[in-house]
Amino acid sequence: MQAVGIGTRVLNFLIDTIIISIISGLCYHGWNVYVLFYGYRGFNFGWYFFGIIFIYYTFFEFIFARTPGKWASYSKVVDRQGNRPSFASILIRSLTRIIIIDMFFIPFLDKSLHDYFSKTEVVEA
User: Fold this and answer.
1) How far apart, in whole angstroms, are the C-alpha atoms of residue 53 and residue 56?
2) Residue range 27-37: average pLDDT?
3) For the whole model, what pTM was predicted?
4) Distance, CA of 88 to chain centre
5) Where are the domains of the chain?
6) For the segment 71-81, what is each residue's pLDDT rounded down to a tens digit?
7) 3-state secondary structure of 56
């Protein structure tokens, strides 16, 4: 079980964030059609973005233990014993990603906050 480096983590983040941004933008603009034509209540883009982050990571990491960014970099999520993480760990991981300062804990914990709280690791696949 070889842990991936910071460069791989950054690549994962960039690929996944681009995909999440596209999905969030489509949902945001799709909903705004209803706001414009039918008078539904509008929401800020952030509600879509952070909601999609939670759904995206929960779905991909629970079903496949990988996201498209992790597929591109040949990495996956495991628990500390090297097994597939539990659904509770994935939920904790996905919820903690919404905290904006999540990535700034890498110098202090040697891992991101979502890895620390969920007791998971990102390793080479």
Assistant:
1) 5
2) 95
3) 0.93
4) 15
5) 6-124
6) 999 999 999 99
7) helix
